[in-house]
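Hey, resending since the last one bounced:
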Amino acid sequence: GDHRDLHLSLRRQRQMCIRDRIVIVIVIVIVVVIVTVIVIWLVIVIVLVIMLVIMIVIVIMLVLLIVCKQG
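The structure tokens again:
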């Protein structure tokens, strides 16, 4: 009786261990995907901001050029 109970509890622990490992792997995959998406979005936002700044600088330079030519 005791021997079989020990066997069952060991098997149950092993099954839980496998299940825990699967859960951990799934959580890690989800976290990596979320972080990757966030990083990609950040890069896109930074690139867009840089482009916007460059466009503003170009517009300011053009306005200055026009003002200087008129003056």
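The helical segments are 2-70.

Sorry for the duplicate.
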